[in-house]
Design a protein that fits this description.
Elements lengths: L3 E5 L5 E5 L2 E5 L9 H15 L47 H11 L5 H16 L5 H11 L8
Antiparallel strand pairs: 1-2, 2-3
Helix pairs in contact: 1-3, 1-4, 3-4
């Protein structure tokens, strides 16, 4: 769990912090993550891409990556806007504070613990299953979450 605090400054603007670092004021974060919209985006991205996002960095071997060789992106990497991404985050958890902040800025929301589980599970489909079974694994995920499979 990531430490968070909320409050307001003297001007009445709300703020959010992680370990005492102010990340944003009112207007930056728009509310809850829309899990159906995120699932649609990830499902369409992964099925169109049809390949795992991996790094070819020496010493990291063939690990999955948010952004990998040839411009490929994993299930979570496709959600992070270019202006919020740092290659240093490859191989780090979706709960990493820097990855979390980039996701919140890119998605326009504050991520909850349930959102982290949701995103981590999507990431697991990319990282732990062969590409050929992604549609079936994503269908199981969607069914368990009462989500709809988007039309391709």
């Amino acid at each position: 769990m990531i430490p968070r605090a909320r409050g307001a400054n003297k001007q009445g603007e709300s703020w959010l912090t992680y370990s005492g670092v102010v990340l944003g004021v009112a207007g930056l974060y728009l509310g809850a993550m829309d899990q159906q919209a995120v699932f649609n985006r990830v499902y369409l991205h992964l099925t169109a891409q049809g390949a795992k996002s991996r790094t070819g960095i020496p010493g990291v071997s063939d690990g999955c990556a948010y952004r990998g060789d040839g411009g490929l992106q994993c299930a979570v990497g496709c959600l992070i806007k270019d202006e919020h991404f740092d290659p240093w985050w490859n191989q780090r958890s979706v709960c990493n504070p820097f990855v979390n902040r980039a996701l919140e800025q890119s998605l326009g929301c504050v991520l909850t613990d349930d959102d982290h589980l949701f995103l981590g599970s999507l990431q697991s489909v990319h990282d732990n299953y062969p590409v050929v079974v992604w549609p079936a694994r994503l269908a199981v995920f969607a069914s368990a979450r009462s989500l709809n499979i988007p039309e391709i």
